[in-house]
């Protein structure tokens, strides 16, 4: 007998407590969580497959339940979370804590709640008479640029019977989201030559050069805001550009030898980040030549940190229609300002939707939480999915 939504939800909460207990902050490893999931699935008779990173310190995990036929559903989510450093938590972020109808802990909404629901459905999926499969696809390093998913998506495209659709379980309050912005982020390193600050002719201040580059980005950010399409469904409506980190110099009276800054550009579908940044790249090349003329050991280096594609609305999208049916969602079309792995799945040719428990408003915050009511809605989604996949 298939579990009731109430029983499935309770099972998911128990699993969520285990998943939250693993510190899978992106700077570390996710392997302890992966190993726990492997054992959980193995106990159900479900084989799983790792798709690791280059040095084996992190891994994606894939598993299939049901017949090896085309037309299945991929339930995808990331295992990594953002840091808790310096955040004023009211309870241990690595211990699931219930207060006032909310489940607190790092990753509860972003996005271990969805992983827990997918795993909670696994026993019923195994026991069910499925005509089409469910594929679990759990990734690493989404929070630092969606770095892990591409290798896993390649395996899905190459080795699995072609799935009909992908559900990416980012927090959406259990309603369907049909589009998100892309993100292009870059490290910029300026290296100059140290000298006494009174002898500027003897050195090159990396900070002074970096300020010219950052000034260009500020002007570009303001121009992008002015050029935003007023009809855009996104908020903010247009592309956004921010400088997130700056580090340079050692003392007030020393010309800075090095300055490092990091920026990100978030673009709605249809905008090319490389084209938007063309003038910036040209300025970086020009300043690189100027620095090297005075200090051959110096220069300007721009490195790609991440290039996550945007996710565009799919006319009459199979995935969105499916998610709406499973979630009981008859609301308007929705988009998200954040970047996710949905654009990567779409870029590989898969019909994709974002739908998962919790609100993005709680993600990355101290006292991050997912409402129990959201887990219950997610359990209803999974219960309907089990029934749907049993239909030929």
TrEMBL record:
Sequence ranges assigned to domain Peptidase M20 dimerisation in this UniProt record: 179-288
Keywords, in A-Z order: Amino-acid biosynthesis, Arginine biosynthesis, Cobalt, Cytoplasm, Hydrolase, Metal-binding, Zinc
Taxonomy, superkingdom: Bacteria
Entry cofactors: Zn(2+)
GO terms, biological process: L-arginine biosynthetic process
InterPro entries: AcOrn-deacetyl, ArgE/DapE_CS, Bact_exopeptidase_dim_dom, Peptidase_M20, Peptidase_M20_dimer, Peptidase_M20A
Keyword Amino-acid biosynthesis in record: yes
This protein's record includes keyword Cytoplasm: yes
Pfam families: M20_dimer, Peptidase_M20
Family from the record: Belongs to the peptidase M20A family. ArgE subfamily.
UniProt-listed NCBIfam families: AcOrn-deacetyl (TIGR01892), PRK07522.1 (NF005710)
Protein name in the entry: Acetylornithine deacetylase
Organism: Caulobacter radicis
Gene designation per UniProt: argE
